[in-house]
Amino acid sequence: MSDMFDSSDSEDLSVSDSGSSSEDNELFSDIDEDPTAALLDARIWCPIHSCQDPRPPPPRFPFTASPAVHLEKDGTLGILYCFESFFDEYLINLITEQTNLYADQCIQSSFLKKFSRAKDWHPVKPGEIRVFFGLIILQGIVSKPVEEWYWSKKQAIATPFFAQVMSYQRFVLIKRYLHFSDNSVFDRDTHPNPKLNKIWPVIVQLNKKFSSLLTPERDLSIDESLMLYKGRLGWIQYIPLKRSRFGVKTFMLCESKTGYIWSFIIYTGKGSALNEEYKGLPKSSQIVLALMKPLLGKGYCVTTDNYYTSPELADLLTSKGTDTYGTLRITRKEVPNDLRQKKLKKGEFAACQRGKVMVMKWHDKKVVSLLSTVHNTEFVDLEKRGKVSRKPKLVVEYNHTMGGVDRADQHLTNYPIIRKRGKKYYKKMFFHLLDQATWNSFVLYKKSGGTKSNLDFRMELVENIIER
């Protein structure tokens, strides 16, 4: 989604100081002094006829947050410490307890055969769970088509390390009984998200950790990510532009620069758990506001694609001290009809302004519509392969800041720990969350002064887990 245009680096927007005064922060500089008239004027779309329009871009809201990593230690952090900031003792103990409980429930049931190997179980301990996770992460680096091959003694494919750390039978048993919530106490009527009940404690804990361990920088992006899954599940999504195409969709809020996953919502259809405060709004607006809720009013700027962007959402965000820009579906509600029907030749544009919100329609290789609360219709010259092209500054900055989710997804696909063959959806979701937590650990490590690459980080993390 972020590759709709040719990407190019650009400088941050800044408000012109020429002729500025304390009144420059008003949405219009030419409004009447009557506040009622000013409010009415702010709801009227005013056409912008030239890219040389003298009106400066709307000023950004003051950024009042202090970006920082919130960990107990200062300086360059240890790799294992970064990872265990997410998978701490509480979460490891929860998984250990629920895995042992689920194993006991299965063995006592009548579903297992009398001499089934699944009954050859003894309780797992927290340290063993950690080692199990280490081997799962290592499998993403050392790729083999069949999981059993990791324990194979055939000289051509042997990797003795796995057998030295844990036997294949024990690994299979832990993976079989891996569990995260007690099925016996599940109540569909009172659970906040019944469809995700089997993985819900982990989702809540990691979402809390993701947002508490980092105060992000000003520029954020919201987009959807897709976890490959082709099993029988009521909320499977088909997104042809994604690499996986079929799977479980997750809405993610990421830091644009690093791809740090700050918060996420797993989509489960109409029953997806969103904030009740925004219940009357369109679903796309609910998602943005639910993800952004703790950051509203602090001067953040969120970049979105045309699934989320709308004049209504832009008005809501600006009322809460938050800027936004992104691509726009020209058929959205409140987009002026004149702009929808406007015919443009290649290189031409049309734009309208309403308060802090600017809507722009531009014909490049095809017609593209955009919305921004921090840009005007300024064009900039870009040089690529010896050719100079002229693009709106809004397009350039959209390309620069929209890639946060794509950046995270790209790095997660480099060393995937989710195996294609797996029937239990909640286990696949858990391994996906484990992968995301490992990625976030790497971002925190880099932000604290770490110098290792993502691959070296993961290798040393596995070694540290096994040594411990």
Number of continuous helical runs: 14
Cα(first) to Cα(last) distance is 42 Å
Instruction: Enumerate the spans where pLDDT stays under 50 for 5 or more consecutive residues.
Output: 1-41
- Give helix % range: 25-40%
Q: How many individual domains?
A: 2
Apparent shape: elongated
Radius of gyration: 26 Å
Could you please say which CATH topology of the largest domain applies here? Transposase Inhibitor Protein From Tn5, Chain A, domain 1
Organism: Ladona fulva (Scarce chaser dragonfly)
Protein name: PiggyBac transposable element-derived protein domain-containing protein
InterPro entries: PGBD
Question: Please, could you describe this protein's structure?
Answer:
- The protein is of the alpha+beta class.
- The protein has two domains: about 35-65 and about 215-405, Transposase Inhibitor Protein From Tn5, Chain A, domain 1 (Alpha-Beta Complex), CATH 3.90.350; about 80-200 and about 410-465, no CATH class.
- Helices cover about 35% and strands about 15% of the residues.
- It has 14 helices and 14 strands.
- The chain has helices at about 35-40, 80-85, 90-110, 125-140, 160-165, 170-175, 200-210, 285-290, 310-320, 335-340, 395-400, 405-415, 425-445, 455-465, and strands spanning about 45-50, 70, 215, 220-230, 235-240, 245-255, 260-265, 300-305, 325, 350-355, 355-365, 365-370, 380-385, 385-390.
- Strands 1, 4, 5, 6, 7, 8, 9, 10, 11 and 12 form a ten-stranded mixed β-sheet that branches.
- Helix 4 (about 125-140) packs antiparallel against helix 14 and helix 7 (about 200-210) runs parallel beside helix 13.
- The two termini are about 40 Å apart.
